[in-house]
Amino acid sequence: MTKIIDLRSDTVTQPTAAMRAAMLAAPLGDDVFADDPSVNALQDKIAALLGFEAALFVPTGTQSNLCAILAHCQRGDEYIVGQMAHCYRWEGGGAAVFGSVQPQPLNHQPDGTLSLADIDAAIKPDDAHFARTKLLALENTLGGKLLPLEYIQAATALAHSKGLSRHLDGARLFNAAAAQAALLQPVAERTHPVRHDQVVAQARAIAQCFDSVSVCFSKGLGAPVGSALCGSRDFIARAHRIRKMAGGGMRQSGLLAAAATYALDHHVQRLADDHALARRLAQGLAGIDGLVVEPPQTNIVFVDLTGAAREQSTALLAHLEQHGIRATGLYRLRFVTHLDVDAPGVDQAVAAIRQFFQA
Ligand SMILES: *Cc1c(COP(=O)(O)O)cnc(C)c1O
Predict the structure, then answer these.
(1) Strands (DSSP E) found in 202-288
(2) What is the pTM assigned to this prediction?
């Protein structure tokens, strides 16, 4: 059987043998009684790593964002958020459904940012006509794009000056941090791989601009399940209550937390490898007629099909599937690199696409 090269998402990874061993060896308790040592260790670790007082282990990134928005906002409040942000567009409207918190979506700039002028203009005065603007929610990376740190500092400073809280959906925070660490390397050292401590330092630099940060362990970090929400002790106490209401109080979840801890110890630095594979894929597809390849900043490659190629989109995906290669999208295809793909796999994907277009 040929190995499937699954580029649909970085969520498809299988736990490694070493990660499974760490899970099986984890001491367990009942986390609803707060006595699962592996959950407590993970929460302490991620909070300290990102510079927060406390953290909460949650089953999904969606629940993490829901807990965050509802812990920051009351009914009748609103949060400012990007049109393409996961916590607005891809979470079933949960904050509105469960919390009566209204989103105020803004269009993104081409680099994924929300303009400071747009944010400023969206903050409502204290007037009975308006929902109370309470929160700015940003996402990094957004569609694989790294938000510039100077931008994050300026946007979160603006929000703070207007009395808003700041939440980061950092599902792929460590991808952002790995890309940022690479950009900050002196030119003479650009050929050196980034170090674990450099990536962690950048993750912390980004996270410290916010009052709360959500991080996924089940994406590029390669754990099977789980996210963490970080913030102040008071904030996490409120989020904990919401997690309970959302049915997210888990029992011997140390089994899962141990996988996340393993990922934080062993899979952070290697995100740079995923980024290199994404560049390899993009370079391999350069020059094919009708394909417009967006140069990747992290581990996601978007390929737009234009002209005659647009009509062949479905046939291309079927052709790839036949060759054991999976991707998502229709006229805008998405390829995501991760722990379970390597350079030969990427080259195979490139070859199959070139064969399809005979380019
Ligand atoms: C995947 C993702 C989430 C949600 O993760 P789930 O665990 O699938 O609920 C949230 N935000 C962003 C940016 C994501 O990419």
Answers:
(1) 212-216, 227-231
(2) 0.97
